[in-house]
Amino acid sequence: MRTPWDSFQRETLDHLRALVRLDTTNPPGNERIAADYLGAALGRESIECVTIEPQPTRASIVARLAGRDRTRPPLMLSSHTDVVPVEASRWTREPFGAEVAQGCVWGRGAIDMKSKSAMDLCLALAIKRAGALPECDLIIAAVADEEAGSELGARYLAEHHPELIRAGHVLNETGGFTLHLGERRFYPIQVAEKGFVTVKMTVTGAPGHGSMPRADTAIAWMADLIGRITRTPMPRRLTPLMRRTLADLGIPPDKAPPLFRPMLSNTVSPTIVRAGYKDNVIPGEACVILDGRTLPGADERSFLLELREIVGPEPLLEVVKTAPPVEASHDTALFDLIKSRTEAADPGARAIPWMLPGATDSKFYAQLGATCYGFAPVRLDPRMPFGSLYHGNDERMPIDGFLWGLRLYADVVLDFLGLRMEDVFA
Ligand SMILES: [Zn+2]
Fold first, then answer.
1. What is the pLDDT of residues 140-171, one digit of tens each?
2. 110 C-alpha to ligand 1 centroid (Å)
3. Within a 10 A sphere around the Cβ of 33, how many other Cβ atoms?
């Protein structure tokens, strides 16, 4: 049975609101409630799915619709079901209320990224209901723990159950939203993301009594180093992707606005500082956690060399955790399809390849060989910039923009699967 488009829209919005109402704040996560919810919806349509729960309550769910040609690599639609914490006192509405007001669904996860979990779910349901047969397998993954490093979600699946999620192409988060630059509109499509190198930097100095000040303490040295790190940019390097992105935008690299600067060099941010244990003792040691981010083409070694240039040879540097940058080619049929359909859906706008300065689950899918794009389309008003909604207070999804994105997303996914909109929707 084909789903009428109107009821498909209502169904997707209802699932979005129901998912927002499930509090999956990470930590602690508790993503099982979302996995159970999605599993029940898939089960009602007899779609088989597997739940993977590496620790109690930390569940991910993976469903699969068989395609006509099972030798063709699958398309995977992926989302994470955990959300970042809220400061409820700073919200004007209930963060897990999924209220509809002022044309938006309000709540944590409405943008990042239960909206895409709902779209992925409903597309699979509609395809199954219509009895349509995709060209290749379609995988739906809704995973735990993305917001805390993916250890119990995508990373766990990639290491322990790669057969469940190995795909030719993956559509994941952070791309397809409207970026307003002056009068012009762009749709960044994420094709690359930076890697990270988290470093613990330790220095030692003379300990002593707090009543006897001195300049050669660990804290004084650390303060000086942190000042240097925050004031000294790492060397600029224009990757071929960023050269193209800036050219598409008509921005000369040396005039790139602050939004783009993290994409033009490795970066480092001090995030946790520790020193001292008693108010009248000058501690002999101070340490800081440095959140380093690496451009495609860089690695741990080259990043540490750049860091040494700033901090000098003495501080002890220990790598705490690391993950490589990834970049997919944008010279593919899927990228061309995304680009042409997005530009047709918003005449006058341009879709451009994009690099995310942060990290997503795409890292782990790419390690299994997938070409990953960030494409979770939503049309945004200039008064509602993506950056302020993402992890922000009063996170909310404009319903008009969501339904616009839903149509575009369905159009792209079905076309890639060799199906027409009219095969699935009435
Ligand atoms: Zn996210």
1. 999 999 999 899 999 999 999 999 999 999 99
2. 10
3. 17
